[in-house]
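Lab notebook, bench 4. Still working through the backlog of constructs that have no structural model yet. Next entry is a single chain of 192 residues. Request: give me the C-alpha cells for it.
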Amino acid sequence: MTTHYLDLTLLPDPEFSHAHLLGALVGKLHRALVQLRADDIGVSFPGHSLRPRTLGSVLRLHGPEAALTRLMTSDWLRGMRDHLRQGAIAPVPADAQHRVVQRRQFKTSAERLRRRRMRRKGETAEQAAAAIPDSVERQPTLPFVQLRSASSGQPFALFVEHGPLMVNPTPGSFNTYGLSLQATVPWFSPFL
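Model written out:
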C-alpha cells in the first residue's frame, strides 16, 4: 500500500537540460528498482502537463515507508545529488485522491513496423508497405522521458499517462519504472 511519499525536485542547471536530468534520474531509479527487486514503489510527476508537454521538475516516489527507506538508503542517487532537492519521506495526506500512472506505447513509425514485418515474415518492401499503410503512425501527445535501453543501448521515449482521479485506491504492483496498469498512487498538491 502506498502510505508514504518522497519528492525529488530537479534544480536548474546551466550545463544540463531539464530533460537530460530527468532522463538520468528515471534511468537511475529504474536500475535501483531492478536491483532491489522492488514492485511496491510507484512514481508520479506532480508537475506534468500536456500543454506544454512536460513531466515537470518533480519526481514523486510512492510506497510503504519501509520500501522508500530501503530505496533511499541505497546509493542510487550517486551523481545526481547536486542536481536535485530531496524531500523527506512523509505520510500521504488523508484527503489525497488516487490515479493510475502508466506507460503508454505508440506505433510511431510505419517504416520501422515495415522493416520488422519484412524480417518476421520474409516479405519484400513492397509487400510490407501494402500491409502497413502510413496511416498507422500516431503522433503521441503525452509527456515523456528519454531513456537508453540497458539491453540494446538504443534510446527510447518512455511516454507517461496520468489517469483520471479516483476517490479510492486500487492495490497492485508496479513495474521497474514505478508505473502500473492498475495500481494507483496518491495524488495531491505538488508541493506540500
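Notes after review: The helical segments are 18-36, 65-73, 110-121, 125-131. The chain has a mean pLDDT of 91. Flag for follow-up if needed.
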